[in-house]
Design goal:
The complex is a heterodimer of chains A (270) and B (250). Chain A is of the alpha/beta class. Chain A has twelve helices and five strands. Chain A has a five-stranded parallel beta sheet with strand order 2-3-4-1-5, with helices on both faces. Chain B is built from ten helices and four strands, in the order αααβαβββαααααα. The chains are: A alpha/beta (270), B mainly alpha (250).
Chain lengths: 270, 250
């Protein structure tokens, strides 16, 4: 027999699926700010925040919404080397594949971009930009200086990455957008909206305000951590539902289960 | 799917850990309460009353060397229960009229004030009539409490003051006090004298008769002592007198 919690569990599988995008007051504000910044004649926009604050899904959302209006490209995984990155960039700019056994001449690429100025406005969304080396970032800057290509650079906010931001973008970035961890209210709305989107009204209703406070305390408002703990909570519920139904309250998820999930994920320790 | 048993066990341990500070706090609370309750029972609050009652402080803090004097003070504390209005001052006229016996008993202290009737402002108070050699004995009669301020006195000067006061008041309490005091000190001649003085004023005071007889014995006048005591015992039929008589005859 299939448990009612199985569907709820799958809602929180950590993935960047634009269909699962939940509009929250904080994410709507960030999106509008990003959209507004792109209207300006800026060369580079820095989007940064702690891991799990919704940077990637925001970039995805942006691409999804603007793809019919602008020439916009999303580079989700960083290139492992210069060659691979310029291969991808060449294809975006020229809309052609690079012939085999050939390499992109960077100077020729910059000149090509200069020629595109005023003709095309290309927007490239670079996710996980902290993975790019400083030399690569310098080349990206030179391309952005042609004003034909605009970059939205997404960075994890850590001490090291702040250093990268300082070194490479401080004098060049014209707009910085920071994504912060969700508040308790935002996180509650996030969980409920996600469940309601899948018509899991009863389960959404069984998660009370007190439970969300505890979950927020564990996850500190991080969406990725929130997905993890919600997945684990529903997995435990699923187990009890199938094996020991007496240990579960269908109207209210017991705090014991939330704490067990917290122990399992290492938020709390014995 | 998880193996729930280890996770459940881990959660139980976590619950214990989570509740531990509460139990510790509860334990400390109970301990502190117990200590407070215990302390409350054992604290002698009378030690601290001097913070609030000046009168007691002053009595307790001053050194009273004379044991006999302190017994007089005890008597004072008994008398203070009587309404103040009934305590009349001793006046010279009263002494002259010999109406001392009918008067209420006044507190016996080093200095019994004798005030002039004309000085009506002094009525209701006991005032030191002259500067005594006793360094300071200050007694105030209030509505409820006697205010004693005894600083220091010497034995000899205290006895002299009592003698002096006796000749002014003819109070048998003073003379009996002197008789007892001298007998206790071994001054039997003086004890005999002051017990005789007491008997002259009031012949019904048994203690005075017994001290008189015992003083006679100590002075070597056994036959006279037995004769006097036999006479008193027959008159008063006092068991104490008969007992003493038996002892003397042995």
């Amino acid at each position: 027999m299939k448990s009612r919690y199985e569907a709820a569990k799958n809602v929180f599988v950590d993935s960047i699926d634009i269909d699962d995008y939940i509009e929250l007051s904080s994410s709507v504000a960030a999106y509008k700010q990003l959209e507004h910044s792109m209207q300006k004649p800026l060369k580079m926009i820095l989007l940064f925040g702690r891991p799990g604050t919704g940077k990637s899904i925001l970039l995805n959302r942006l691409q999804e919404k603007l793809k019919h209006q602008k020439e916009i490209y999303y580079f989700d995984t960083p290139a492992s080397n210069d060659k691979e990155f310029f291969h991808k960039l060449f294809k975006v700019l020229t809309k052609q594949d690079l012939p085999h056994n050939t390499e992109v001449n960077f100077s020729a690429l910059v000149n090509f971009c200069k020629n595109l100025r005023g003709k095309r406005e290309i927007l490239i969304l670079l996710d996980e930009a902290q993975m790019y080396g400083s030399e690569m970032m310098e080349k990206i800057r030179l391309i952005s200086d042609t004003r034909a290509v605009k970059f939205v650079v997404s960075l994890h906010k850590t001490d090291d990455e702040d250093l990268i931001a300082k070194e490479h973008f401080q004098s060049r970035i014209w707009e910085i957008i920071e994504l912060k961890n969700a508040t308790n209210a935002d996180q509650t709305a996030y969980v409920h909206k996600k469940l309601l989107k899948k018509n899991l009204f009863e389960i959404a209703n069984s998660i009370k305000e007190k439970d969300m406070k505890l979950i927020h305390a564990f996850t500190k408002g991080n969406f990725r951590e929130c997905n993890k703990i919600m997945f684990t909570i529903f997995e435990i519920c699923e187990y009890y539902d199938k094996n020991e139904p007496s240990k579960i309250n269908y109207e209210h998820i017991p705090q014991r289960i939330i704490e067990m999930a917290g122990l399992k994920l290492g938020y709390i320790h014995v | 799917m998880y193996d729930m048993k280890p996770l459940e066990e881990e959660w139980k341990l976590y619950q214990k850990k989570k509740k531990r500070p509460w139990f510790i706090a509860l334990g400390i609370g109970v301990l502190l309460t117990s200590i407070l309750v215990w302390q409350y029972k054992h604290i002698n609050f009378s030690k601290f009353t001097h913070f609030f009652e000046k009168d007691k402080t002053m009595v307790a803090s001053k050194e009273v060397k004379d044991v006999m004097l302190s017994s007089q003070i005890d008597r004072l504390q008994i008398y203070k229960k009587e309404p103040v209005l009934e305590t009349k001052p001793v006046t010279k006229d009263m002494v002259a009229k010999g109406s001392i016996d009918s008067m209420p008993i006044l507190p016996v202290v080093n200095d019994i004030p004798i005030i002039d009737e004309k000085r009506s402002d002094n009525i209701g108070k006991i005032v030191v009539s002259e500067k005594p050699k006793v360094k300071k004995v200050n007694i105030e009669v209030s509505r409820k409490k006697m205010h004693l301020d005894i600083i220091k006195t010497s034995t000899v000067s205290a006895y002299k003051d009592v003698e002096k006061r006796f000749y002014q008041s003819y109070d048998t309490d003073d003379s009996l006090f002197l008789a007892k005091s001298y007998y206790r000190k071994g001054e039997y001649k003086k004890a005999e004298f002051w017990s005789l003085q007491t008997n002259k004023i009031n012949s019904n005071i048994e203690d005075s008769w017994l001290i008189f007889v015992k003083s006679k014995m100590k002075l070597g006048h056994k036959n006279e002592a037995i004769r006097i005591l036999t006479s008193y015992a027959q008159k008063s039929n006092s068991s104490a007198a008969w007992n003493l008589l038996l002892q003397l005859k042995k």
